[in-house]
Amino acid sequence: MMFLIKNLNLFLDKRLKIHFLIYFICLFVASFLETIGISIIPIIISLHLKEGFFYEKLPDYIINYFASLNLNDFLIISFFIIIGTFLIKNIVIFFIHRFSLLINKTLTAKTTAEVIKKLFKKDFLLFKESTIGKKIRDVTVEADHSTRSILNLLSICQDVIFLTLIVILLISTSSTISILIIGGLMIISALIFISYSALLRKLSIALVKSREILFNKIFEISNLIREIKILKKDNFFIEKYHFEHKKLLQRNYKKLLILSIPKHIIEICAVFFILLIIFNNVFLNELSFREMIPQLTLVIISALKAIPVINTLLLKISHAKGLNVSFEIVAKYLRNKVKFSRKNKSKYSKKISSLKLKNFSFNYKDKTIFKGQNISLKAGDFIGIFGPSGEGKSTLLDILIGALKIDKGLILFNGKKVDDISQLNLNIAFVSQNPKLINSSLKENIAFGEDEEKINKFKIKNLIKMVGLDDFVRNKKRGINYFVGDGGNLLSGGQVQRIAIARALYTNPDILIFDEPTSALDRTNERLIFNLINKIFKENKKMIVIYVSHQFSLIRKSNKKFLVKDKKIKSIK
Ligand SMILES: Nc1ncnc2c1ncn2[C@@H]1O[C@H](COP(=O)(O)OP(=O)(O)OP(=O)(O)O)[C@@H](O)[C@H]1O
Ligand SMILES: [Mg+2]
Predict the structure, then answer these.
(1) pLDDT band at 176 (very low <50, low <70, confident <90, very high)
(2) Which of 395, 432, 433 to mutate to test ligand 1, by most ligand atoms within 8 A of the CB atom?
(3) CA-based, 20 to 30 A from 541: which of 3, 78, 563, 566?
(4) How many angstroms does the Cα of residue 236 sit away from the middle of ligand 2?
(5) Under 8 Å CB-to-CB from 226, ≥6 apart: which residues?
(6) Please, what are the domains in the chain?
(7) Residue 424 has what DSSP assignment?
(8) Would you state the pLDDT for residue 328?
(9) Which residues surround ligand 2, an ion (CB under 5 A)?
(10) What is the pTM of this model?
(11) 427: Cα separation from own chain's centroid
(12) Would you say residue 347 has pLDDT above 70?
């Protein structure tokens, strides 16, 4: 709970803070109205009976006024007072509730947006390291739960305020024994909570993990469906999913079961304590039953109102244990400062004429990839990179586009020293080893990340022709609006590759990078694509083309060749 209060700042902007403050004041008003709602009937009964606690405490002018009324008038006025009180109470509470729902909506939208932003702006390596299941889980369930934990805290405050007012009311109307009774109930509640608090936290952490595993399993199945079908492993994956799901349900079942126990204990204790009050008053204070009616009505109405509140309060405090785990996860995202380098971008907004990396080193956590190496590119270069698998070709590309940061070395952009390639406003396009498509139309895959109305359809059609997909598109009823399926699974590997190349060319890049772009193609298509790349290069004199391949034959035509092997980048003639 303390962690939540300390980190609340991360979630609330100035406007939300003001809304929370107003809401907090509203909670007092709501609790006060609830307490009035509880006492109004006992007060009226007391006025009618002309005895009891309230009768003694009420001001004379009220007592005199009611005493002057005949029974009919008394009933009519009482009717309007009771109805009026409950009407006002319910209207005000409805609006306070509406306000809380609005705060919830704004807070959840803001938190989720912030988590997505922090996730996407995260360091490239860190992004790759966390699982897809964790990402989906954090953006959806955890972001939602984290805001619920804040509202849960407010709701706890509301219950505590309400119960405190009831306690004050009961203490001021009953004998000292009720103080002991209320104290007893509170101690019992606290003991119940303390006894299972650690277990609840453990279960909540396990549940968060289970959610990640389940999201991952669905992703695995949809990604590997072909392999699963071919190897006839459907049952294996279904069983695995089922197994993990059962684990999650078991944890949830345990949690819900534990959460339901206090309710019963509290109810039994409350009934026991109410009976104690009656016996105490009848036997010890020797009050008549008639004298006790107003007070008893108050105690029973209070109990009827307070027991569910105590129950839900305990439930909310217990839920807070689980929700706090989500809150901690999301707070970590929000605390993570991401650099927004807009200022630096304008400083380097010039077109690239050269980029040099001198004496640079790069290590993954547990592996050195490059040590004291050099590489330079200049406008108009056609660079070929080749070398055995796993030696660092793709890593080198990620360094050149600024996705990975070098550990040591000097970066010179157009002859000037810069700290970080990612801060340069480079116009780069990249065709990767296994290009991915979005679940959308051909058109939207080529004009990647552009609003539909801004898409240059003429350019799209030209590019489709250029990469040799025009026959394919002509045969489709929807043409460039043809849907490519989940990740492009309604297309062949070669077609996906061609769309990826068209996508790369759509932005008129200054640097065009190909990482094994023909790995999914046959010999003829490989040649076709390679000739196409040569053609693009010849038509764009200032463009830098970088082509990575295992095969030397494919990079033979490039004007600079590099061999990546044994942590070195060797220039080859
Ligand atoms: N995020 C990562 N964390 C740790 N090690 C990594 C990471 N990414 C790649 N590696 C390792 O770095 C080495 C170089 O990988 P890289 O992908 O650059 O090789 P490559 O030359 O492109 O191979 P291929 O020709 O098979 O594509 C590999 O041994 C790989 O296991
Ligand atoms: Mg590679």
Answers:
(1) low
(2) 395
(3) 563
(4) 31
(5) none
(6) 2-183+258-335 (1.20.1560.10), 354-572 (3.40.50.300)
(7) S
(8) 93
(9) 393-394
(10) 0.74
(11) 31
(12) no
